[in-house]
Amino acid sequence: MAGFRQRVPAPVDIAMVAHPSVTLLVDLSEGEGLVYDAHGRHGRGSVVVGLHPGELRAGGRVGECLQIRLEPVAAAAVFGASTELSGVVVPLDDVWGPGAGRAEGRLRAAASWDERFAIAVDILGRWLGTRPPVAPEVAHAWRLTLTGRGRVRVERLAEEVGWSRKRLSARFRSQLGITPKHAARLVRFDHAAHLLAAGHAAAGVATESGYVDQSHLHREVKAFTGLTPAAVAAAPWLAIDDVAWPAPSPVWPAPSPVWPASSQARKPPAAIAGARRTSSP
C-alpha cells in the first residue's frame, strides 16, 4: 500500500506495469482526478486492476491516490473468486458496490496518510473472511510460484499439492482468475521488469529470469505491457517500488521518492504495515 500526491499542474500519462497482484487505485482527488486507458477503453475514478491487464495507462490531473496491492489469494478473500477480474480494469464501485463510495469518503476525510492507511486496513479487514477461502492447495501453489520466481513447472506444483495437473489448473483458474502457467509468466515477468529497472542489461536479465533468449524476453515484456524492455526499465511505476514496497528488513527506509517528477509517494509506517504490506516489490 502506498499513497501518492501529484504536484504537477499539467496532466500526466504513466504506463502502469503489470504486477502479480490485484491492484486497487482509490482516487482521493478533488476535481478531475484519476483517468485510465485499458484496451482502448477510457475511465475515470477509483479502479480495480486485475491480474495480467495488458497495456494500461493511468494519469490525468491526479491530486491524491491510494494504491493497494493484494496478492491473488488475499484478493479472492476480499472480492471472491477473481475469474471476473482477470485481465480487466473495472471501476471500484462495480466490485464493491455502495461500499466503494463510503470507503472513498472515509479515506478522503482523513487528516493524514497514516490515518488513511489505518482506515484502509480496517476496511479490508472487514471484507476478509466474508467470501469462501481459496483452497489451501491453490494458495500453496501460488506461493511456490511466487518464491520460485515463476520457474517452477506446473507438473511440479501439482505433485507438491497431490493433485493432477488438470485439477490444479482448473481450481487455480476458478479461484485466482488465471492458470498456473500464466501465473508463472506474470511472476517471471515481474522479476525481469525489476531487474531492468535496476539497470541490468536485457541479455543478462533474460538469462537470469529464465527466458530462452533476449527475443523471448522482448516478446513477454511486449505482451504484458505493450512496451519495449527499454521503456519498462524507465517506467516511473517501478521507480517507487523500493521505497513504497521495500524488501523486508528490521528497519524500513524513510520514504523519499520522486514519482513522477513533482509528486510524492508515501508508504505505511512500520507500526501498522505488518498487517498488510506485501513482502515482494
From TrEMBL:
Keyword Transcription attributed: yes
Keywords: DNA-binding, Transcription, Transcription regulation
Entry coiled-coil feature ranges: none
Region ranges (Disordered): 255-281
Signal peptide: none
Matching InterPro entries: AraC_XylS_family_regulators, Homeodomain-like_sf, HTH_AraC
Sequence ranges assigned to domain HTH araC/xylS-type in this UniProt record: 136-235
Protein name: Helix-turn-helix domain-containing protein
